[in-house]
């Protein structure tokens, strides 16, 4: 069993915290990139028990996104929310978790998570190979299991008790990881995973996700389509994802572009830019470099790997 590793931005100069937090998240969760404001206050502690990763992340408002990473062992990540809220956005669906809920992610799929202010989350990272063939054969990505589910309550009790005593359990046998995998498997087997095509009620955020490829998408178009005032649209975006409509739309377009570029299926960079809703490939390249730190061409060639592994 590994020792607990701890990371915090509090000892880092404010102007360097954004980059430091990005590097911490990328190292802890390969394939994941953090998008945080300069000066963010955040901390991560992680522990490994017999192949099962166990982490606790506390953060001010931020976003994280994952692109598909080939060659890595497949994991399910169970996010147990202890404080705040989080919205997992995957394709055209969104799953919003509140205190006590569990939302499941599959690291073989791209997704993004919007994290609320003063967020506190326990994260269990379980190799699918430890959970049995029946679990491996089903799609768990984006599954939200509410706090009222007794198997969530059981898992929460186990994780919170184990975490609170972690400093006294340095000699705990690695077989504890098997027990955690069993608890995760039990929760999955007793959870409903059938989901409608759009999991959330129609809202300004839903509309934006459905129409990202439209270059005219913006506050004015959303207002017209949903018969809402600009103020109502702005408030809805900030309440649900903590971003302005423009920032949210740009971020989601860039994340979709990153996933398309990583596939390298013959689309040109201009094709990708137009496919995700940009009408100017030069502007797309500038936005991509500002967001990910590398150009689209460098990302496609793998030179952006330092941000992802």
UniProtKB/TrEMBL annotation:
The keyword Transcription applies. InterPro entries: AraC-bd_2, AraC_XylS_family_regulators, Homeodomain-like_sf, HTH_AraC, HTH_AraC-typ_CS, Tscrpt_reg_AraC-type_HTH. SUPFAM superfamilies: Homeodomain-like. PANTHER family: ARAC SUBFAMILY, HTH-TYPE TRANSCRIPTIONAL ACTIVATOR RHAS-RELATED. PROSITE patterns: HTH_ARAC_FAMILY_1, HTH_ARAC_FAMILY_2. SMART domains: HTH_ARAC. Keywords: DNA-binding, Transcription, Transcription regulation. Residues 202-302 form the HTH araC/xylS-type domain. This is AraC-like DNA-binding protein.
């Amino acid at each position: 069993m590994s020792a607990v590793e701890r990371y915090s931005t509090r000892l880092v100069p404010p102007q360097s915290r954004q980059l430091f937090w990005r590097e911490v998240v990328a190292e802890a969760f390969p394939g994941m990139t953090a998008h945080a404001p300069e000066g963010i206050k955040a901390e991560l502690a992680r522990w490994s028990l017999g192949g099962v990763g166990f982490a606790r992340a506390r953060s001010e408002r931020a976003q994280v996104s994952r692109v598909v990473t080939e060659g890595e062992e497949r994991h399910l990540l169970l996010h147990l929310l202890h404080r705040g809220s989080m919205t997992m956005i995957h394709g055209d669906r969104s799953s919003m978790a509140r205190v006590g809920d569990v939302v499941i992610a599959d690291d073989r799929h791209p997704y993004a998570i919007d994290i609320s202010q003063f967020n506190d989350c326990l994260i269990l990272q379980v190799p699918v190979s430890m959970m049995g063939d029946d679990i491996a054969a089903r799609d768990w990505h984006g599954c939200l299991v509410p706090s009222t589910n007794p198997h969530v309550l059981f898992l929460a009790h186990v994780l919170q008790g184990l975490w609170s005593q972690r400093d006294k359990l340095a000699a705990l046998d690695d077989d504890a990881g098997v027990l955690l995998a069993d608890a995760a498997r039990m929760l999955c087997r007793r959870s409903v995973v059938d989901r409608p095509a759009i999991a959330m009620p129609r809202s300004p955020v839903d509309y934006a996700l459905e129409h990202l490829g439209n270059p005219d998408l913006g506050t004015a178009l959303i207002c017209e389509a949903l018969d809402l005032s600009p103020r109502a649209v702005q408030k809805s975006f900030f309440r649900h994802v903590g971003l302005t409509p423009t920032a949210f739309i740009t971020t989601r377009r860039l994340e979709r572009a990153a996933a398309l570029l990583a596939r390298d299926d013959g689309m040109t960079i201009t094709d990708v830019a137009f496919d995700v809703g940009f009408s100017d490939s030069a502007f797309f390249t500038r936005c991509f470099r500002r967001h990910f730190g590398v150009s689209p061409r460098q990302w496609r060639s793998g030179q952006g790997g330092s941000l992802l592994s």
